[in-house]
Design brief:
Layout: H1 2-13, H2 17-24, H3 31-62, H4 82-100, H5 109-118
Helix pairs in contact: 2-4, 3-4, 4-5
């Protein structure tokens, strides 16, 4: 039982390693912070748009306006799970913030762990 919960805890908190540098860094804002901001905003937009598209698709299915079983329109035509892509992109954006704040290289373990977990 302990090993099950330990594994879940490791998977849950490993992406947060990239936050370590953001919290402890004291570097002034720079160009890398702007890049991190753009990546994070793109991630949120990707997740939001894909979730809205899926919600609309599910709504149409419930109302029997379409017979389609698999979503293949909008962002879903390009990726099987664009919302997950947005999630992964978010954590990479936080890691860029961390590096911009002067964090050590080990903080890359966070987004790498999440990327491996999802893919």
């Amino acid at each position: 039982l302990f090993t099950v919960f330990l594994g879940q805890t490791i998977f849950l908190f490993s992406p947060c390693i990239s936050l370590y540098g953001c919290i402890n860094g004291a570097a002034p804002l720079g160009k890398l912070d702007l890049l991190a901001f753009v990546v994070c905003v793109a991630a949120v937009l990707l997740e939001t748009v894909s979730d809205l598209q899926m919600d609309r698709f599910q709504s149409e299915r419930r109302e029997h306006r379409i017979e389609q079983l698999v979503m293949d329109r909008g962002l879903w035509a390009w990726s099987r799970h664009p919302n997950y892509c947005g999630e992964v992109l978010w954590w990479w954006g936080l890691w860029i913030f961390s590096i911009a704040a002067g964090a050590q290289r080990f903080t890359i373990a966070g987004p790498v762990a999440l990327s491996l977990l999802i893919y």
